[in-house]
Amino acid sequence: MITIKTITPVILFHKLGRYIGISTSTGDFYELAPATYDLLKEWSRRISISSGSSSRQDISVLAKKLHIPLEITRLFPVPEKKISYTPDRSTAACLTDLTLNLTSNCNLRCVYCWNDHGKYSNRRFLGKKKGEFSNNAKDEYMPVETALKAVDILVGARGKDRDLVVDFYGGEPLMNLRTLRATVDYCRENQPKWGINFHFLLATNGTLLTPDVAEELIGKGVQIAVSIDGPKVVHDNNRPLISQKGSFDIILSNLKRMPRDVMKRLVGRTTVTPFFPDMVKLYENLRSLGFERIELFESEDACHRFPPGKETSFFSTKNSYKLLCKTYEKLALRYINDVVAGNLNYSKTFFNRFFKLMQRLYYNHEVSGGCPAAKGQIAVGINGKIYPCTSFLGVDEFELGDVERGIENRKFQAFIKKINNRFEYCQRDCDLFSLCRSTGSCLNVNYFFNGDPAVPHKKSCALFAEKLSLAAASLSILSEKIPHRLEKLFGFDPIGRRGNKLY
Fold first, then answer.
1. Measuring CA to CA, how many Å separate 4 from each of 84, 95, 99, 364, 439?
2. Which of 10, 106, 353, 489 has the most CB atoms in a 10 Å sphere around its CB?
3. C-alpha torsion sign, points 298, 304, 305, 307
4. Do the strands 163-169 and 97-101 form a parallel or antiparallel pair, or are they unpaired?
5. Are residues 147 and 18 in the same domain?
6. Measured between alpha carbons, how far is 170 from 113 in angstroms, rounded to an integer?
């Protein structure tokens, strides 16, 4: 049990013309009349300045003093000073997701690349000592045997789950198509024997995704996300080839030749930077290229930190952060209009995090345990070493084992113990914990900014709160405009697992 210092019953947002109140006890949210919103805002303000010294009775008396109707205060009960949530203290990994980093090689030099083009700013994950480099090209590609052994570890640690995800990553994973194919075939051949249904994800820069390759992989059940950052001038600025020439024309040529039934299954993914922050235009660009499934996400100054001199590729200043929040508001309004018009739905944009937030609010999910790193997922480097997630590759402190020995329980327990400390910070300091459950700040981001994966990164938490408020306001508007379609919009996948088959 962990004592909560803040006991404010309600968190208030005014977004998209809507006045929203979220209960810090239950996670339920409500649209409020402006006058009621103002009363609750004053109530919350006075509670906050009391420094947590007010009793539950004092808070109730204050509500009466402010003439807040009883039917309103009942919606926002005063949270207990202690809550029953206890972090997962499993003694063994129970896995559902595996990320295979198929190669450390990449044919692009994206300006915001957080993993140093597959090198993860640390050649040690190639199996070399510090300062030692390899001229052997084989060192940059995961062997088939390594990938298959990693799948065996996933299957062996699956617990009772029968839906497992294998995610192909890099570098540019299509540069190691041999291992990718072999892994998918191995899983498909053995899934009847294992009683497992595999889902496959692939993130690619699109330069090697010819129609033949795309059709083959989709035929094998691989869901493919293609990174393309906007019109030619924007994309070529963000995602040049090694030669520094633009990569847009190569990708566009591949997309234009895609069969229609293949194109509608691809996910168009845009990383938004301060160079061109207009998310609505970037969204429209993905639509114009023929993508039905989309994802937009801001560049993250995270993981192994952005290289010196690259700060302008990230929303790292106060002004750029404000700009980012404004452009998210415009994008939310565009999403709402398209959903109402029947041109957009969650099942066609499964990778879109904004829809996942709305879904979470719709079902009032508690995302117990937060980030699944090590608890639900692992990542394997090309040398077979195992890490909690792909963002931690190459960081010796977080190595959990390798595909020969499996996950070492001692290292696993040490990692779980370390990250469970984050719940103490979140429950103590954040009123949004009833909804967030510590998912607002990535463990890896916490580590690289605060030196500890358990200490929340405040900027990430603030941005998560911003997105959550937009999702609540958007859901409120959709509840008014299309109440009869909400269950269809979200109900096909009530648990929000990634990798589920959509077509």
1. 11, 31, 36, 21, 18
2. 10
3. negative
4. parallel
5. no
6. 11
Of 473 and 302, the structure prediction assigns the larger pLDDT to 473
pLDDT at 106: 92
Residues near 424 by Cβ (< 8 Å), separated by ≥ 6? 2, 454
Contact 70, 42 (CB under 8 A): no
Q: Residue for token digits 């930077």?
A: 273
Nearest by Cα to 400 from 86, 89, 95 = 95
Flag whether 417 is in a domain.
Answer: no
Looking up tokens 């500890």 gives 452
What sign has the CA pseudo-torsion 469, 475, 477, 480? negative
Phi, psi of 30 (to 5 degrees): -140, 145
State both tokens at 152: 């065996």
The SS3 call for residue 379 is strand
Distance of alpha carbon 282 from alpha carbon 228, whole angstroms: 10
- Coil, helix or strand for 200? strand
- Distance (Å, whole) CA 266 – CA 262: 7
Q: What is the pTM of this model?
A: 0.88
Instruction: Tell me the three state secondary structure of residue 457.
Output: coil
Residues 212 and 172 in one domain: yes
Number of domains in the chain: 2
Q: Work out the burial of residue 322: count CB atoms within 10 Å of its CB; fewer than 13 is exposed, 13-18 middle, 19 or more buried.
A: exposed
Find the mean pLDDT for residues 105-115.
85
Single-letter amino acid, residue 425: Y
Residue 119 carries which DSSP code?
A: T
Question: What 8-state DSSP symbol labels residue 137?
Answer: G
Domain limits for position 10: 1-84
pLDDT at 113 over 70: yes
Listed in sequence order, the residues at least 6 apart from 69 whose beta carbon sits closer than 8 Å to its beta carbon are: 36
Distance, first Cα to last Cα, the chain? 44
Strand-pair category, 406-407 with 197-204? unpaired
Residue 212, Cβ density class (10 Å: 0-12 exposed, 13-18 middle, ≥19 buried): exposed
**Cβ neighbours of residue 88 under 8 Å, at least 6 residues apart?**
368, 369, 375, 416, 420
pLDDT at position 81, please?
A: 55
Burial 44-75 (b: 16+ CB within 10 A, else e): bebbeeeeeebeeeebbebbeeeebeeebbeb
Q: Are strands 10-15 and 18-23 parallel, antiparallel or unpaired?
A: antiparallel
Q: How many CA atoms lie within 13 A of 237 on its CB side?
A: 15
| Residues of the chain by 3-state class (helix, strand, coil), percent to 5 | 45, 15, 40
191 and 54 inside one domain:
no
Pairing of strands 406-407, 401-402: antiparallel
Quick check: is 126 in a domain?
Answer: yes
Average pLDDT, integer, range 105-116: 83
Same domain, 250 and 303: yes
